[in-house]
Amino acid sequence: MFLRGVWRSARVGADLACCTGRGTDMLQGSFKWQRLRKIYAHNISGLQNSVDGAESGVSSPSLFTATISQMVTEIIGPKEAGLKKPTIPEGKTRHLCDVYGSLSTEDKATFLRVVSRQFGTDHDEVLKAAEGLPQAKEKSEAALLKAEERLQAALVPRYHDLFVQIGRLEGGVKHLVDMRADTLDLLSTVKDNAELRSFSSCLREMLSHWFSAGLLHLQRITWESSCDILQKISEYEAVHPMKNWSDLKRRVGPYRRCFIFTHSTMPREPMVVLHTALTNQISDNIQTIVSTPILDDEDVEDINTAIFYSITSTQKGLQGVELGNYLIKRVVRELQAEFPKMTQFSSLSPIPGFRDWLVGEINKVLSSTALLTSAELKKVAEIAGKEDVLPLVTLKKLLQTNQWMGAESMVETLKDPLMRLCARYLYLEKRRGYAVNPVANFHLRNGAVLWRLNWQADTNPRGISQSCGIMVNYRYFLGDTMRNSQRYMEEQHIEASQQVIDLAQAAGGVDSPAGKSNL
After folding, report:
1. Residue 274, CB half-sphere, CA atoms under 13 Å: how many?
2. Measured between alpha carbons, how far is 382 from 410 in angstroms, rounded to an integer?
3. Are 459 and 287 in contact (CB under 8 A)?
4. Whole-angstrom Cα distance, residue 57 to residue 364?
5. Cα–Cα distance, 287 to 353 (Å, whole number)
6. At what angle do helices 172-187 and 159-167 cross, to 10 degrees?
7. Does the pLDDT of residue 244 top 70, yes or no?
8. Which GO terms describe its molecular function (predicted)?
9. To pair with 319 at 20 to 30 A between CA atoms, which of 40, 128, 358, 384?
10. Is the pLDDT of residue 104 over 60?
């Protein structure tokens, strides 16, 4: 299957190359694949039914691996070439990209494993270069600098040169973004693969340079924007999915702003999308934002608040590359210029993972009265009619099935305990010292304040399933964001309002002296 797909790509590439004057290099690739195709066709039955590859002694996987290795080597040169890189005809790199794009998911995984394993860092060269440092230091400053240069070169994996060559192609950066997305998908299916992780990290660092804030273009999206961009905005929306074109029109119309970041190498592809509501107060529920009827005009005098209610990174391959925080900062400046009276900036954010975390905590303490008070658990059991079952077992089932939302008395009973536990989850639960919730971590890294929890803020099924309908405002006090960000990153300190601190303290785990807020 692989070689058949490669054969089609090679033939198409060769035909195009002949038409554009780049025929010689591409035709050589075509002849190579024609020869491999004949080998493949001759041995296919033996390769599939014999461990040793039948008469030829060549197995399909080994042929595939050897072919990958040869194609990459032709682009980056043999290891012996060292720092003397060959001049690479663009056609070979383009051919490799076409081949990769034609592969199945399984064959792409093999490709990535081969490249990450065979073209990574040469550990022997690194050790050799490192051993030469003490001797070089004794000679002279110039000798030491030269030795350090050799060590730096040895530390760069060989596939770095492959990334550089691909990045020079038209559409090559997008190809690398997609390749990293494939790598992340593969890593999610394997327990531990240090070579693949190193491969992904190297590619992420390279993409971080190419997608730095200064190279990104801020663009406002309106109903008059091109149809393909509007379609992508609708398809990419992951926080509050759009139901129809009217929904989309509302989100780019009056009292709303939609901004995207694009890149010169991917001009019609949004990198990250930020939806903002223009209001006169900090919103406490999403229904009023996404369900408001479409209005004709804006009253500029009535707008003093910006609510960031959805931010979506659209490219999985850019995971770990800082984009969203830069977008928020740029949008704040844009809005301040457009609305001089705007003084309040806040998110209205979902809390993905809260219900799953809570169910996990319930599983730890099923036979106790932890998490809720005895009186609260008793009332839950009475309303549910399950007084003969462990109260936490009843609560767990109610949460997992969302049945608790069907009875007003149950909703009222669970309000206080769920708000307490949500504050504990956001304010106290940590991973490596930082907030365990990814959305919280994002805004806190940006310098926002964990400002307010909102009950019944998202009553859609998705909101109930994710966070029991609770949403949170992360508020941006522009004069304090830099200090807050620094304290969070260096001291793991979360700046929070008194409401959040009081709720977390009621849930247990916050000392009164430490739980003081000026907000």
Report:
1. 27
2. 10
3. yes
4. 56
5. 21
6. 140
7. yes
8. malonyl-CoA decarboxylase activity
9. 358
10. yes
- pTM of this structure: 0.80
* Distance (Å, whole) CA 255 – CA 301: 12
Per DSSP bridges, beta strands 344-347 and 305-313 are parallel
Query: What stretches of 257-390 show up as alpha helix (H) in DSSP?
Result: 287-290, 324-338, 354-364, 374-384
Distance CA 436, CA 430 (A): 5
Comparing CA positions, the residue from 285, 269, 267, 268 lying closest to residue 277 is: 285
CA distance 457 to 468: 9
Q: How many CB atoms lie within 10 A of CB 86?
A: 11
Dist. CA 196–CA 194, nearest whole Å: 6
The answer to whether the CB of 513 falls within 8 A of the CB of 501 is no
Phi, psi (degrees; rounded to nearest 5) at 387 = -70, -15
| Angle, vertex CA 295, rays to CA 293 and CA 297, nearest 5 | 165
Closest Cα to residue 198, out of 130, 120, 129?
120
Amino acid at 490: E
* 42 pLDDT higher than 90: no
Per-residue pLDDT for 513 more than 60?
Answer: no
How many angstroms separate the first and last alpha carbons of the chain? 63
Q: How confident is the model at residue 516 (pLDDT cuts 50, 70, 90)?
A: low
Whole-number pLDDT of residue 73: 92
Query: Which residues participate in catalysis according to the annotation?
Result: 349, 443
Asked if pLDDT for residue 24 goes beyond 50, the answer is no
Angle, helix 60-76 to helix 105-118, in steps of 10 degrees: 60
> Over pLDDT 90: what percentage of the chain?
64
Sequential DSSP letters for 375-432? HHHHHHHHHHT-TTS-HHHHHHHHHHHTGGGG-HHHHHHHHHHHHHHHHHHHHT-EET
The angle, 0 to 180 degrees and rounded to 10, between the axes of the packed helices 172-187 and 194-210 is 150
Q: Name the 3-class secondary structure at 218.
A: strand
30 neighbors 128 (Cβ within 8 angstroms): no
Compute the distance between CA of residue 263 and CA of residue 326 in angstroms, rounded to an integer.
14
509: pLDDT strictly greater than 80: no
What sign results for the dihedral spanned by CA atoms 446, 450, 454, 460? positive
pLDDT tens by residue, 442-482? 999 999 999 999 999 999 999 999 999 999 999 999 999 99
